Amino acid sequence: MQPGKTPPRARPTTAIALLPQDDRGNGWLNVLPPRQPKPALRGEHRADWLVLGAGFAGLAAARRLGELRPDESVLLLEAQAAGEGTSGRNSGFAIDIPHNVGSHLTELALAERHLRLARAGIACLEQSVRAAGIACQWSRRGKYHAAVKPRGAKAVLEPLRAMLAGLGEPYRWLDRDACRRELGTGYFEAAVHTPGTVLLNPAALCRGLADSLPANVALCERSPVVEFELANGVRVRTPEGSAYAPKAILATNAYAGEFGVFRGRLLGFAAMASLTRPLTAEERRALGGLGDWGVTPANAYAGTTLRCTQDHRILIRQRIDYRPGLRMSAEEQRQVRDGGHLRSLRARFPMLPDLSFEHSWTGFVCLSGNRAPGFGQVAGNLWAAVCQNAIGVAKGTTAGMLAAELALGQDDPLIGDMLALGQPSRLPPPPIRDWGVRLRAWRELRRNRDEV
């Protein structure tokens, strides 16, 4: 929290009504070999620390607590199995450089904070991947930030180039022909390639991190918290058990409001993705390009995120819908897959007319109105690492790690960087909030429809 500001307080006792109900279509997870989840929480338990949520933030928080306090017990609770939730459903980018920051000196200073925070998360993840031998298609290929039309290149890519120059960061500018050579498609007007982003399978990474925690960290999967109490410590109840600890870290992202934390300050969006079958050898020759790569769109609302994976599949992520209830029906998902995703695939890769999707899924992204993270001490014995604003792999890891250090009173200059980003601003009450968010999204889509 910023100095002098009062953090939003968690309520003493809360019944959790909204629990994750993610679909079973996550392609990142479905292409992996089977894994036996850790046993669910049963009976009564006591630990020195509770960590709620085993996404990237929760896994990092539990790992850091375990490392810094090897003689203390840490209990990590996850509502689903590792890799099934939001952290295992993103597009598989650990992004180091913010996309759309201006070149003014004050904006550059903010960008430098974001860079330090994101790169700390990537370094932490890379250390864990190497130490535990996590097979997650970890690939330091960088990423392409691409525009479909000249207007998008002028409005987004040129300011990005100016920002990178101001920061002294390496980059390459690619015109349409260069995009065709490296990506296999001539659909883009231009792109800016930066080398620091890591491509990966996020579900495989989550599972690997969950299976390589310190010995003093106990993970209980399929253990959703149904009751949460702040009174002389932190008490939680799950369907089959209960647990108590003097202190806890909350890492439940979009569900944080259910715990009374940052209530009325967080927005839930549904992001939908589809993953194809593997390309045949003939299709790989027809596509060309440089092997695995990742593309982020100039406009996140209207554009399409693309991945070409190490196992020769193409991922399409397009369309972000405001969903405060964190739900999307199978029929809605089918319409997006058979409409927008398939149309995007055919438009970008006409040389692959027979390529089809094997998996489609939805992940729920947490955003704040002012793009600030939900980080810091939110009660005397509770810290939060939520709301990564759609950059959860790197920023979530850093937030979890720093939340643990903050709770332990550790001195880390990155904590100052995180606190300087502020806290999520209060949003108008519904239905005004819902109308406003949907109107803004509609305007963004309409204004940038040429970037679809």
Structure, described:
This protein is an alpha/beta fold and 452 residues long. The chain has a single domain, classed as FAD/NAD(P)-binding domain (3-Layer(bba) Sandwich). The protein has helices at residues 27-30, 56-68, 105-132, 150-167, 176-183, 202-210, 281-287, 330-348, 392-407, 413-420, 432-447, and strands at 13-15, 43-46, 49-52, 74-77, 93-94, 143-147, 172-175, 190-194, 198-199, 217-220, 227-230, 234-237, 241-245, 247-250, 266-276, 293-297, 304-308, 314-322, 357-368, 374-379, 382-386. It has an eight-stranded mixed β-sheet with strand order 7-8-6-16-17-18-15-19. The chain has a six-stranded mixed β-sheet with strand order 10-4-3-14-21-20, with helices on one face. Strands 1-11-12-13-2 form a five-stranded mixed β-sheet, with no helix packed on it. α2 packs parallel to α9 (392-407) and α3 (105-132) packs across α9 (392-407). It is globular and about 65 Å long. It starts with 12 loop residues before the first strand and ends in a 5-residue tail after the last helix. Residues 1-8 have low confidence and may be disordered.
User: Separation of termini?
Assistant: 37 Å
The radius of gyration over CA amounts to 21 Å
Helix count, per DSSP?
11
Count of structural domains: 1
Poorly predicted ranges? 1-8
Largest sheet entry: 8 strands, mixed
Strand content: 15-25%
**Helicity level:** 25-40%
Strand order of the largest sheet: 7-8-6-16-17-18-15-19
Shape: globular
CATH architecture: 3-Layer(bba) Sandwich
Which key phrases capture this entry?
single chain; 452 residues; alpha/beta; FAD/NAD(P)-binding domain; eight-stranded mixed sheet; 11 helices; disordered N terminus
